[in-house]
Amino acid sequence: MALRARALYDFRSENPGEISLREHEVLSLCSEQDIEGWLEGVNSRGDRGLFPASYVQVIRAPAAEPPPPARYANPSQGSDDDWDDDWDDSSTVADEPGALGSSYPDYEAAGGVASGRYRLSTRSELSLGSRGGGSHPAGHPHPPGGSGAKSSATVSRNLNRFSTFVKSGGEAFVLGEASGFVKDGDKLCVVLGPRGPEWQENPYPFQCSIEDPTKQTKFKGMKSYIAYKLVPSHTGQQVHRRYKHFDWLYGRLAEKFPVISVPHLPEKQATGRFEEDFISKRRKGLAWWMDHMCSHPVLAQCDAFQHFLTCPSTDEKAWKQGKRKAEKDEMVGANFFLTISVPTGPGAGLDLQEVESQVDGFKAFTKKMDESALQLNHTANEFARKQVTGFKKEYQKVGHSFKCLSQAFELDQQAFSAGLNQAIAFTAEAYDAIGDLFADQPRQDLDPVMDLLALYQGHLANFPDIIHVQKGALTKVKESKRHVEEGKMELQKAEGIQERCNIISFATLAEINHFHKIRVRDFKSQMQHFLQQQILFFQKVTQKLEEALHKYDSV
């Protein structure tokens, strides 16, 4: 006989792969062996998936008459727009003993001020054994009710351990599992600006140029590479870096800063790496990348970035030491969120509904911007192709036709025809030159626009993961509030979850505001450049035509 179980409590699925249960419902089990507190089975509606083992009782004897089937539909698995799809699975903040007072310590009030290191933790100082209501291993969901103790309620963990919310450390932080020492230099401050939360500005702003890409060799010429000269304005000392150094830095920053949009590097290329056009295009892409790095208040001050900018090119030992230090950085994952300092005091709190609305609005904005950027990139690329090939060919075809007319007229040997023949020949040359102007023009106006679009498409690709972390934190807050309303969780624990969610929300809104600020700056500058180059182009065309026109004055 097939294994069966009866649901002891209602369970609402919140992730792909889970199924909902209704109290007293009889289920068919795929196996009696649980996996980290979860069983797999089929409910009375025919839905197959996972559910908490502690929510059901295995039926050893023949099953009794099943109760009527549940009346509500299985929640949908979500669409591409459903940010909450893979965010919950089973363990708990309630399992982490502790109160709000220790879950988010005040940075300034923490001990160790003289040493510049602050012990920050979202864990409680109480031991597991000191808490009423018993304890459960992490990853095993607790059934509702039980002994009646509020501490038995849990905020679930994500089943999908590969989700961004989990991998970033956001889940562990919100659930109160982060603990580490934060140095003064590691603190990232969010302040309230005129547009809401903002990253605190870099007190020592700087820029860095990328020039003179040169081909170099090593291993007695067996291996070749391109080195770029970097000159940071705050040191004035040039260093040389290869693309692999940029790539290493990008990897470190993307891992360390889960709620910051680290700009993407220009794409790698296996062949044609030493061709002049490719080297020039990559240098321009790296220049945009560097500009965004230097413009970001957090990224610009990161130790790994400063090491990249300042370590002498010839000091291999110093480079490796700095590289190892960056790779051993402890302020990553859940501990990264400990470094974020947010506004406190009256009026500094966040309304979670308002935050959710702002984030949803930004999500819609990025989706529309991404679509329009793809469209503009396609249009610009197609128009540039026509200018380089089609327009040049057509204008030069016109020029060739004028030239043929001029050659025909030259068969007339009379003196009064000479001036006309020369003017028509000059017109032919003018149209030939205009064709060359069309072919060269995309380098001046359309290519820079497409370079900027490529950079922003990288940013737009980053934000779904950033928003995913914030949405994941918000889901945990909603779950903890539900537990409080049902009398299953202490208010103090739920407040700790909300306060940690606020930290992630402050950082997310600060990053969104920085994106908008830099976007307005960049597109204003690029559109001005584009129109200026268009004007110069048509002025050159006009000049060519006017010069040709004046040749007829003496005819």
Walk me through what this model shows.
With 555 residues, the chain is of the alpha+beta class. The chain has three domains: 4-59, SH3 Domains (SH3 type barrels, Roll), CATH 2.30.30.40; 208-341, 2-Layer Sandwich (PX Domain); 352-551, Arfaptin homology (AH) domain/BAR domain (Substrate Binding Domain Of Dnak, Chain:A, Domain 2), CATH 1.20.1270. The chain is built from eleven helices and 13 strands. The strands form four sheets. A five-stranded antiparallel beta sheet has the order 4-3-2-1-5, with no helix packed on it. The protein has a three-stranded mixed beta sheet with strand order 9-8-13. Helix 8 runs antiparallel to helix 9 (418-444), helix 8 packs parallel to helix 11 and helix 10 packs antiparallel against helix 11. It starts with a strand and ends in a 5-residue tail after the last helix. The model is unreliable at 63-118, 124-140 and 145-151 (pLDDT under 50). GO terms for molecular function: phosphatidylinositol binding.
